[in-house]
Amino acid sequence: LLGGRLLEKGAIEVVGIEFSPDVCEKAERNLTEVICGDIEEINLPFDEGYFDCMILADILEHLKDPLSTLKKLRKHLSDSGCVVASIPNVRYHGIINMLVEGHWKYEDCGILDRTHLRFFTKNEIESLFKEAEFEITGITANIDPAYNSLSDPLSGEISFGRVSLSGLAPEELRDLFVFQYLLKAQKTGVEVQRLNDAVKTAVEEDNPDEARKALEEYLALHPADTDVLFRYAEVCWKLGLVDKAGESLEKILIFEPDREDALELRKIVEKTCRE
């Protein structure tokens, strides 16, 4: 159904991968192409960087080796593309309470769906994508409505069943009521590569002010990236923005006090200020 809606909204091509032959047959009615097989075993018949978006809706928890699968899929994702995934949260308070009572009962659906092979907390989801060389750019959650009934969700304390917890940060307490996380991710390093391309183009076109703007936009989101801070200092220096160049160099030297290129440029900047 999702594939059909994507095509209706203008997607040029929607490809599905399905293990069950019966489901494959049904999916063919709604998708451009359906590959019937085990995603962990098959070789995808597509070029590297072929896809603009990959949707892993309740998929990773069903795999024997989700890390290897993510790495395989990564090769076929374009540098500007994204992965959208939904993953159950095993840290949900109902699961914790079940364990405290000595149970682990599989069900026909939900977090303990009997077909699930892997279980994730939010931290482990983040670790999985990081190891697969993806950067999570957005994450939301499907939350138990009971969370909104808490008298004080900022208290850091909660009790359910025979469990009592205290000293929780607000996000830790909220996490206990999350059924499922939904995330968007892109290849690690893509944002920096885009920045490099933008700065390179601006420099080649003899437009250092455009390079400065691109660097400032990036640093607004990543203020501690010392390599980009140094490039920003260089550009500001060329533009005659001596104060901004000096400020950036001081930030770099807080993190890397022995960084030679920053120390050398600071000497030049300081000499100019004295003159």
Automatic annotation (TrEMBL):
Matches recorded under InterPro entries: SAM-dependent_MTases_sf (IPR029063), TPR-like_helical_dom_sf (IPR011990)
Protein name: Uncharacterized protein
